[in-house]
């Protein structure tokens, strides 16, 4: 058997670790690795038009599958383009390995063409970033990088000079065991007993849930029933906890709705379950707080804790629920459910009057129709900005749908690239990119990637010709909007010119038919929907406490839009309340 070179060994290890594709843009320093992929069955090279797209796509694939995903960039500018998508993957706890190819090893440190220092540059957005400077480091360094990415749920970066990649590997890589999944973490009995005692002592307990409740829906519901607790959620907890939830009181934060804010402030004990909710202004400072998280470094960094519990949510609740005394008083829970329903009733009317006649089209109406027409197991990728608002308030999770966005990093232009990664995992599953015109146009070149690979992604473009969220921030700060207007083309015509299905919608009565046709189309499709740029309801008075970023009180929330089918869920929960 011919001796492997380092690039072949690299690709062989990735393949044995379960990697099925590598996203990137080819370049001279990367050529040995790309050629090794060409000659290796079972792993494909996905050519994108921008390396930032490669990183976003890998991050989305990792979030959908829970397995390692890989992206790559050539030396200097090529791998620097990865950095934004890698920040997003890292902050989303997505296991991603990035290959940063490098200039010839003999030229490092001498100001060579395209020279950077990727092993240093990526340290802030990775758990592990090291350079292979000698073939003998393979395969141990790559194995270490893989184990960091999977074991710590984040990014690892391997820097590989092109000349080293082309050198003979010292030995064929051994069949070494590789970490491919993370263990569950159970708290100690002392912490479980302390938390159980706090719950038993409290009259009013609220659960606030984040993405760490993934896979723990049944356990959270059983626990909430036993202690008669309202259940609120952060945006990243929506897809895991909102569905089939008779204790739901909505979402807190800038995009919040319902009674989540009240439930977290009017309780005796607030339990944060698997959430690293970043806006501490929405958290109470005068109630007891316990936090459960599998990442110990996140315990207590948002608020002062009375108890920190290190463990994953499902295992913690499996241990905790049998130890707490059942509560029989539903007064607090029922009060919060009533407040939640009343709050939703108050805002749902905002965008239900004459929506089928309003021109430009209400974006809320678009989101509600998308929610109704999309498949039960659809994957939604959501652009940062106003699309986050529509996703938070109109998409209905059901335990099978996924909602992915740049919810922690907050990058523009994430939706289309993430849709690429999501669609590659399963061509038969519906993937809908909810894109804003600003985000879409930023990385619009990778719409061509959909066409090139015939990926059946459906791009629903909310085209209000502005950077809507930025404009809102300016208004809240008392500033006139400036630099937020976009002069856009007919994006549907652009899509058709690229070889995809494209349709432009300017009237509400055209919307349902256009979306149905696009969703039924077998290839990539884009629906360019001209939406109302003035769809936000701004309070008549802007107070000084609204100016500081996102630190808004729930009673003075700026975004006062509708809430879609969530009002029906709230009404259903009220019907289930026991009657005296």
UniProtKB/TrEMBL annotation:
InterPro entries: DHS-like_NAD/FAD-binding_dom, POXB-like, THDP-binding, Thiamin_PyroP_enz_cen_dom, Thiamin_PyroP_enz_TPP-bd_dom, TPP_enzyme_TPP-bd, TPP_POXB-like, TPP_PYR_POXB-like. Keywords: Pyruvate, Thiamine pyrophosphate. Residues 166-185 are annotated as: Disordered. Pfam families: TPP_enzyme_C, TPP_enzyme_M, TPP_enzyme_N. Residues 383-529 form the Thiamine pyrophosphate enzyme TPP-binding domain. Residues 5-116 form the Thiamine pyrophosphate enzyme N-terminal TPP-binding domain. This is Pyruvate dehydrogenase.
């Amino acid at each position: 058997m011919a001796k492997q070179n380092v690039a072949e060994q690299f690709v062989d290890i990735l393949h044995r670790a379960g990697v099925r594709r590598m996203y990137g843009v080819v370049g001279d320093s990367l050529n040995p690795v790309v050629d090794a992929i060409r000659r290796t069955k079972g792993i494909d090279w996905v050519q994108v038009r921008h390396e930032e797209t490669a990183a976003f796509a890998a991050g989305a694939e990792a979030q959908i599958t829970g397995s390692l995903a890989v992206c790559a960039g050539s030396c200097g500018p090529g791998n620097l383009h990865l950095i934004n998508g890698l920040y997003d993957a890292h902050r989303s706890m997505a296991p991603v390995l990035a290959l940063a190819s490098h200039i010839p090893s003999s030229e490092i440190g001498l100001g060579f063409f395209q020279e950077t220092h990727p092993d240093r540059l990526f340290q802030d957005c990775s758990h592990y970033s090291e350079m292979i400077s000698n073939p003998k480091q393979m395969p141990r360094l790559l194995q270490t990088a893989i184990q960091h990415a999977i074991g710590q749920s984040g990014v690892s970066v391997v820097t590989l000079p092109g000349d080293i990649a082309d050198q003979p590997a010292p030995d064929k890589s051994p069949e070494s065991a590789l970490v491919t999944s993370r263990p569950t973490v159970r708290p100690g009995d002392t912490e479980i007993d302390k938390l159980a005692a706090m719950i038993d002592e409290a009259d009013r307990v609220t659960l606030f849930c984040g993405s760490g409740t993934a896979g723990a829906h049944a356990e959270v519901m059983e626990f909430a029933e036993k202690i008669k607790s309202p259940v609120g959620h952060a945006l990243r907890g929506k897809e895991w906890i909102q569905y089939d939830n008779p204790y739901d009181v909505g979402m807190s934060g800038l995009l919040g709705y319902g009674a989540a804010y009240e439930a977290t402030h009017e309780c005796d004990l607030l339990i944060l379950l698997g959430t690293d909710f970043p806006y501490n202004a929405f958290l109470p400072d005068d109630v007891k707080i316990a936090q459960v998280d599998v990442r110990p470094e996140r315990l207590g960094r948002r608020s002062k804790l009375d108890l920190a519990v290190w463990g994953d949510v499902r295992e913690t609740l499996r241990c905790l629920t049998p130890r707490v005394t059942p509560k029989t008083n539903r007064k607090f829970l029922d009060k919060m459910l009533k407040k939640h329903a009343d709050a939703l009733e108050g805002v749902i009317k905002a965008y239900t009057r004459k929506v089928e006649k309003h021109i430009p089209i209400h974006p809320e109406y678009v989101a509600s129709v998308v929610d109704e027409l999309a498949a039960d197991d659809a994957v939604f990728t959501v652009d940062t900005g106003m699309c986050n608002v529509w996703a938070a308030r109109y998409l209905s999770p059901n335990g099978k749908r996924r909602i992915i966005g740049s919810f922690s990093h907050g990058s523009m232009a994430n939706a289309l690239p993430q849709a690429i990664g999501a669609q590659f995992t399963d061509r038969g599953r519906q993937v809908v990119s909810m894109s804003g015109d600003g985000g879409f146009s930023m990385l619009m070149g990778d719409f061509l990637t959909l066409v090139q690979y015939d990926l059946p992604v459906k791009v629903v473009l909310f085209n209000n010709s502005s950077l809507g969220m930025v404009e809102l921030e300016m208004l809240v700060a008392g500033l006139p909007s400036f630099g937020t207007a976009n002069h856009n083309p007919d994006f549907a015509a652009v899509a058709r010119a690229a070889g995809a299905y494209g349709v432009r919608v300017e009237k509400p009565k055209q919307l349902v038919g256009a979306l149905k046709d696009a969703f039924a189309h077998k290839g990539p499709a884009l629906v360019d929907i001209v939406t109302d740029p003035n769809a936000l309801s701004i309070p008549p008075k802007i107070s000084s406490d609204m100016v500081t970023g996102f630190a808004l009180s729930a009673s003075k929330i700026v975004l006062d839009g509708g809430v879609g089918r969530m009002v029906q869920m709230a009404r259903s929960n009220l019907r289930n309340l026991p009657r005296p």
